[in-house]
Amino acid sequence: MFADTDRQLRKLSIYKMTKTQILKVIKETAAPHKLDREQKFQVFANVCDNMLAEGRITQEQHIRWTNVF
Q: Given CA atoms 46, 62, 57, 31 in this order, what sign does their dihedral have?
């Protein structure tokens, strides 16, 4: 995961996060990097895993956002 992504997510003062907020932070920090579609999803999944571990998203949100089927 990008260090900047983690830093920006920690700066947010709200407890629960929305998918839109997470995607915005990832988009801003990944912009200078050339990532393909699979790599972008891997970064998103890693961020979601961390947000779940911190209790910032629910298990239901995690499954809904990261399950591609």
A: positive
